[in-house]
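Submission checklist for the structure archive. All mandatory fields must be present; incomplete records are returned to the submitter.

[x] Identifier: MBL fold metallo-hydrolase
[x] Organism: Actinomadura sediminis
[x] Residue count: 231
[x] Sequence attached
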Amino acid sequence: MLVAGFPAGSFAANCYVVAPAAGEECVIIDPGQDAEAGIDEILREHRLKPVAVLLTHGHIDHVWSVAPVCGAKDVPAFVHPDDRDLLTDPAKGLSLGPGQQLFGGLELTEPDDVRELADGAELELAGLRFAVDHAPGHTPGSVTFRTPATRELPDVMFSGDLLFAGSIGRTDLPGGSHEQILASLARVCLSLPDETAVLPGHGPQTTIGRERATNPFLADTAPADGPRKGL
C-alpha cells in the first residue's frame, strides 16, 4: 500500500493520499488549507487517479479544499452526517466572538457529490477497504478510517483529530465533549493491536502500542469490551 502525506496550510493538518500502489487509483483524506498543489504533486509523482475524498471530521483545517479538489477531480466526498453542516458553515465548529468573521468572511461550499458515512461501514474504494468508526468527542461527526494489514504494512488507522502522538484532540470547541472523546478512544483505538500504525490529523505518525504505553491522556482509559466492527 502506498501512503503519501503532507501538512497542509498554516494549520499543518495532515493530508494523505492512499493507493494500493503507484500507477493505480487512490483516495484523498482531509484536503485542508491550500492542499491542491501538494495533492497534485503526489498524484503526478506516483501516477495516481483519485476516486474519492474521505473526511475524518468537518473542521475547516481538514476540509478547506474539499470542494475545489472534488470539483477538479470529479469525485465524491464522504463525511459523517453529524459534521456535514460544517462543510458550508465552518464557523459553527469554532468559538468566534460576536460579529467576528471567519478569515475575513471566507465562505465554503459543498462538493456536488457528498455521501454520508455510517458507523461500522466498510468502503471499497481504489482497490482498498476502509472501515469507518464513528468517534465523537472532538466533533460530533468525527470518524476514523482503518485499512487491513498487508505484507508490507500493519493495520493502519487514519485517526483525524481523535488521537495524536502523545496527545488527543481538543474538546473545548463547539460540539466537543471530553467524556465522549475518552469513550471513543477506548472503543475505537485501545481495542486495536499494538502494532496498528496511527496516521493522525496533525503531527507525526505513531502506533497504538506506543500511545497505550506513553500517552498521558490514555493512562486511565481502559479498552471497551466487545469485538471490533469490520476488517
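[x] Structure attached
Curator remark: The chain is about 20% helix and 25% strand. Residues 93 and 174 are 5 Å apart (CA to CA).
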